[in-house]
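Quick one before lunch.
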Amino acid sequence: MIRSLQYVALTIPDMQEGARFYDAMGLEKHVDGEHLVYRCAGRVQDQLRLVPGEKKGIAWVTWGTRADEIDKLAAALDKAGVPMAPSPAAIESNGLWFRDPDGILVNIIVADPAPQTRPAVELNNPGTPYARLARRGAPNRHIDTRPRKLGHILKFSTDINRDAKFYTEVLGMKLSDRIGEELALFLRCGGDSDHHTLAMATSEAPGLHHMSWEMGNIDQVRMRAEHLLKTGYRDGWGLGRHMNRPGFTGGQNSRRIAHYGTDTKEEDLEAVFP
Ligand SMILES: [Fe+2]
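Model of the fe (ii) ion complex:
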């Protein structure tokens, strides 16, 4: 099964504008030929690759699996009649390359999710062991808060149930939740996964809806958002409009969040949260 979201590659028409945005997001950049590759500070794992292209879109999504499982995934793809695809130009041809039922290019490599080695910034908010005596109560606005990892991607799909069947039955993902029969659904990787690492929303064409970047806590979400606003970006939904994993909400656990969903089965949860 696929076990971790490694990185997302996006095609963008203006690399300078892309760099300006993801620099403002606080990600660390390096240049790889014509591509820009981003990582989170303190985490040795590519999380985002910007590829020059005529239109904005998903170039491909790279997932990680274990060395003893990649041949099983190749066999499962073969059994499902999914042909291998060539790797993109300028990319080392490692792992498996193929297209999902919606035509999105998918790559699976042998890789573990990298640990986050940067210490969390201590802030005075619920659920954190913050000693307040003789210490400043409010976060210093100059604290350097940066994304700690890429949490999930939500893609548009022309048939979410067909796609979910592929990602669960062939690639081993698990269904965490759904909104109605046709609107959206949320899948997680095997092992120690967030509530979802891949979500899909119904649309007329495949494409990117959003990516989720994990911050240390909700104060840091606000602080990074303020930085983006000052840099000239306008807010979209704002705080509180998007549910996420514990680091975001400050204390709730993933199981509890999963229970808030509409159609999550207890035995499904037990498989991941024994
Ligand atoms: Fe999301």
